[in-house]
Amino acid sequence: MTVSDTRAAAEPAEPEHVPSITTWSRLEPRTRAEDLSPALEARTADPLWLLARQWQLGEFQGEDAGTPVLARLDVESARFAEVRYGPSGGPAAPLPAGRPLESAVEAEDAAGAHDLRWAAETGQELLRFLAEHGAGALRAAVVARYPIPSPPPAGPSEADEATAGYLRIMAGRAPHGTDVLRDHARGRFPGTVPVPPELSAAVAAAVAGWLAWLQAGEGPATDGFLPLVDTPGAGARAWQRERLEYAFAAAASDSVGETVLTAPEYDGDRLDWYQLDHDPDAALGAPSDAASHSERRTHVVVPTVAAYPGMPATRFWEMEDADVNLGRIGAGTTDLARMVLLEYATVYANDHFVVPVEVPSGSVTRVRSLVVTDSFGVRTLVPPAAYGAADAGRGWGLFRPASARGGPPAPLLVLPPTTFSTQSSAPVEDVRFLRDETANLAWAIERTVTGATGEPIDRDGQVPRAGIPPRAEVPGLPELTYTFATTVPENWVPLVPAPADGRPDGIRLRRVPLQQPTRDGTPVPVIGHSRVLDWTMENDTGRVARLEIPEEEVGRAGTRVVREWRLARWTDGSVHLWLARAKRTGGGTASSGLRYDAVGPR
Predict the structure, then answer these.
(1) In whole angstroms, what is the distance from residue 369 CA to residue 574 CA?
(2) 190: preceding bond cis by omega (within 30 degrees)
(3) Cβ–Cβ < 8 Å for 497, 442
(4) What secondary structure letter does DSSP report for 351?
(5) Which of 301, 314, 371, 549 is the most buried (most CB within 10 A)?
(6) Residues 576/103, Cβ–Cβ less than 8 Å
């Protein structure tokens, strides 16, 4: 074993102000053998010689440094109070109480969450309550007034045997529960059904029991939809359909002022502190009364060394277990994470300490002061990690949100009001966005769409390729045929590149119905049936906006957007169910086989 000098001998000296990975300021063991075990064993045959060498190298000289033994931490926590759905510039609203933040941001509107199956099941419960209270004679009138519709024609639900069969069975047997709820919220039901005077009390009792079963109580309903399924509030639209992701902001207020955290590109998969960026210039109008919305606490704890299981001991000859063989850990030149971990464990492990602090859920915590007392009784006021002008945009801190303006991370500890974990269903909708370099198009492939009953329908297995149109014979070449255009599967929706209308951000992928020929010569547009591609959604001005996706959103790796049900339990024990979307990585490029003016054998 040899001891390295303070500078690599084989390399020229470098200026002191230039950082270099070939410069060291510590004496560390080095071995030229492939096996590091002999060097790590630190064998010695003459302890007295080793002590003399330590004396010569100055290792016995005392340092004016003590070990931290006590830490006094003063923190202030402020709970999130306001939330803004969508990009900057939109109105803010109070954060919904009693539900996780994911539910408030991700939940779809009532029209997407309440399908015909939900309507049929709630309608069946209404008939059961009417029968229990002696008003079963109104069954036929309620079913006739609020019928279950049949599947929409020329859609995937009509072609799906399970969906069509379910609706045929429920037609005439159960009322549309969603329509009943909507009319009741508007004060129309049960007035829309002729009720004999002798059954008025029974009908009122049955409707009250039905609403209680739906967990509505006596509170008002929003457009007739009750909290059995979490739905967004009025104007809450965080999903950006062109960017295929969520955008929102949340704010909290403490003694310093309002703190706004933005999430401009939340993909919907896992909401945590690293999804939020601090925007010092934004304001949502959070309550300025810090005394009622913030809490200041003092923690006195004993700092502990930052370690992990299996890490070597910080003292050189301290007895260790043999769970980890550091001599057999291999790291290539590009394995930077493993090299940094080993460097920390073997060299810098006794330089980092952990001071735990408990923060309330759904809050932003600001460290007001940190005073450390060492083993010599010296108290030191520890300031936050400083970031100079040269480090702007490159600073990083654990649990400290990055700056939305490109500056250093904010000195905050963020714990958003999110769930620990959620249970997700199988996707009720799955759309893949892929590039087709051969056809110079992008495609939205509807692999799974949501049926009229809310059940997923497999479009890959349901929709075969359309029939090939009649081919015209080429004069003089009877053995060849001419095809104006080949066909693509009906679940492949084209996205045509087009320049943005008055926008400086380049090319947009515009959804255009592809006119595809059939065997009888009548062109049929390929428009798709998924709600992800729904182009009837209204924008903020109330007008119907066409779907235009920025070109950079569909890269060579592709993009996948799914809709799925999510179930979670909140801190008060309540159970929350909502319908959410998530943006994930796709499966690369694809080829649709689309060609124009093709000539081939008959």
Answers:
(1) 37
(2) yes
(3) yes
(4) G
(5) 549
(6) yes
Cα–Cα distance for residue pair 231/113, rounded to 1 Å: 8
Give the number of other CB atoms < 10 A from CB of residue 231.
23
- Residue 143 has a CB neighbour count (10 Å cut-off) of 20
Question: For residue 192, is it left (φ>0), alpha (ψ between -120 and 50) or beta?
Answer: alpha
Q: Could you tell me the two tokens for 264?
A: 């401009």
Q: Over the range 17-41, which residues count as b (16 or more CB within 10 Å of their CB) and which as e?
A: eeeeeeeeeeeeeeeeeeebeebbe
CB atoms inside a 10 Å sphere around CB 242: 14
Three-state DSSP class for 499?
Answer: strand
Burial group, residue 330, by CB count within 10 angstroms (0-12, 13-18, 19+): exposed
pLDDT digits (tens, 9 = 90+) for 340-379: 888 888 888 888 899 998 889 899 999 999 999 998 889 9
Residue 27 dihedral angles phi and psi, to the nearest 5°: -95, 120
Give the tens place of pLDDT for each residue, 476-533.
555 666 666 677 888 888 888 888 766 656 788 888 777 776 666 677 777 788 888 8
Residue 310 three-state SS: coil
Phi-psi region of 13 (alpha: psi -120 to 50; beta: other; left: phi over 0): beta
Q: Which distant-in-sequence residues (6+ apart) come within 8 Å of 401 by Cβ?
A: 261, 273, 274, 276, 277, 278, 409, 410, 412, 414
Q: Burial level of 88, CB count in 10 A (0-12/13-18/19+)?
A: middle
CA dist 312 and 234 (Å) reads 57
d(CA 205, CA 166): 30
Helix boundaries (H) for 160-316: 161-170, 177-185, 200-213, 290-293
What is the tens place of the pLDDT at every residue in 36-47? 777 667 777 788
Take residue 363 and report the two structure tokens written for it: 């809050």
Is the pLDDT confidence value at 58 over 90?
no
The residues near 315 (Cβ < 8 Å, ≥ 6 apart) are: none
Q: Cα 474 to the chain's mean position, in Å?
A: 55
> How many residues belong to the chain?
602
> Would you state the structure tokens that stand for residue 415, as one six-digit string?
């714990």
- The predicted pLDDT at position 476 comes to 58
**Mapping DSSP to helix (H, G, I), strand (E, B) and coil, where does residue 383 land?**
coil
Residues 465 and 504: their CA atoms lie apart, in Å, by 38
- Angstrom distance (rounded) from CA 431 to CA 434: 10
Quick check: helix, strand or coil at residue 181? helix
What is the C-alpha to C-alpha distance for residues 428 and 579, in angstroms, rounded to an integer?
10
Instruction: In whole angstroms, give the CA distance from residue 191 to residue 13.
Output: 93
Provide the edge-to-edge strand list for the sheet that holds 596-601.
472-474, 477-485, 596-601
Structure tokens at 574: 């309540």
Helices 116-132 and 200-213 cross at an angle (nearest 10°) of 130
Residue 106, helix vs strand vs coil: helix
How far apart are the C-alpha atoms of 131 and 115, rounded to whole Å? 25
Question: Among residues 241, 242, 277, which one has the least CA distance to residue 259?
Answer: 277
Q: DSSP characters for 531-580?
A: STT----B-TTSSB---EEEGGGS-TT-EEEEEEEEEEE-TTS-EEEEEE
Quick one: pLDDT at residue 431? 94
